[in-house]
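Q: For a teaching handout, I want to show students what a protein-ligand complex looks like in token form. Below are the inputs, and the small molecule is magnesium ion. Please produce the holo structure.
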Amino acid sequence: MEKYQDSRDSGQGQSVSTTIFVASYEDVIVARQKVRELMNEMKFSLLDQTRVVTAVSELSRNIIVHAGKGEMTIIKYDESGRRGFRCIFEDKGPGIADIDLAMREGYSTTNSLGLGLSGSKKLCKNFSIQSTRGKGTRIEIAEWK
Amino acid sequence: MTFIGNEISSILSKNRNKICDSWKKQLIIQSRTLVELIGLNQVEKITQEISDSLIKAVKTINTHEHEDYKKLEKQVAELSREMSLRNITPTETAQLIFFIKDAIFPILQEDYGQNSIIADYILFINSIVDKLGLLTFQIYLESREELIKEQQRAFMDVSVPVVKVWKDIVLIPLVGMLDSSRTQLMMETMLSAIEDTQSKVAIIDISGIPIVDSLVARHLITAASAAKLMGAECLITGIRAKISQTLVQLGVDLSGIVTKTTLADGLQLALQMTEQKLI
Ligand SMILES: Nc1ncnc2c1ncn2[C@@H]1O[C@H](COP(=O)(O)OP(=O)(O)OP(=O)(O)O)[C@@H](O)[C@H]1O
Ligand SMILES: [Mg+2]
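A: Here is the structure, written as tokens, with magnesium ion included.
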């Protein structure tokens, strides 16, 4: 289910956010579509779209595979001179014990390619990860023009 | 303070027929389209059933065994689901519920107009009916979501076709999302096609796949090595420039697989590999 929130903050232009629950592969499709739609609307190039939507696919799938469920929030901002958006992937899953290790290309605890995290970092302009063992994981990516 | 739910319940119960009737009349006047869509009989049934449940529910709503209230909620949820399937807007459904107030308040006014307790009565009914109204919205959203998911599932469920394009060459064009269950299907289809037709080359065309992430990449790599085990070569075609650029950034290594940008190039290569020529 989606929640819409429209917050206009103190003269700093406006930001609009959308949250999508991520709990199944269908939700991954929805997450990808939402980001693609937004990027299309903001006139990002097709290459940019492919690049970022691929990362969105990786990070939302990680929520399902490694944490079971979580959510993605898209925050669009349009501030003086800067137009862009952030996607926040948040879950209350098991968390990651060693972030450096998890970020390493080819590292996977599920016998997969282990490219989701390292790849997403390379694909996005901005990438930050926070994770606490037993508490959950929060990953934020950002794109702007 | 004694619980006012009991009193309200008995007032409503005494006026049950009047409430149903006036609620129905409100709907006929104010919700013309809804009444036309679902019919007067249905409207009558809904008003009676929900009034009866409400009368029961207000009696026990503050106790731990508010089974009756749960039943009422269930009824309203069911109603909302049905309305959304019939393409009735969520506003109309919520209004349908809200109009019961217009049936109840005048009755309270009549009997208790001079009594200050009427304010409490109205607050009480208000909070229950408002909650039910919100519930109809929530259920509407949920049922829409279910519908979308169902459609997506149906879309993803298309079987994987295999085409024997030439002697010794099979083609598997993929469309949509390559999740694990579809990959399984693709592998099975491809492998049995290779076996049945004794083909030497399998071409997997991914032009119809919008996003190739590491999962799709892994599936393609697995498919290619499975084909090899059966003595066939696997070509991946339809990797557009944007996707191959992204794959490189992602760190996916497809160097072990023969790839071609277009299906035409792939077919040409396949013909060479099987020592055939286009006549
Ligand atoms: N949201 C998460 N919660 C808990 N652990 C995670 C989460 N995301 C990633 N991880 C851990 O980090 C590791 C690396 O993640 P990454 O996405 O790079 O690889 P993968 O998911 O295992 O494989 P791939 O994405 O290539 O199919 C995972 O194997 C997992 O142990
Ligand atoms: Mg991953």
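A: Two things your students might notice: Residues A 58, 61-62, 116 surround magnesium ion (ligand 2) (CB under 6 Å). The first helix of chain A runs from residue 25 to 41.
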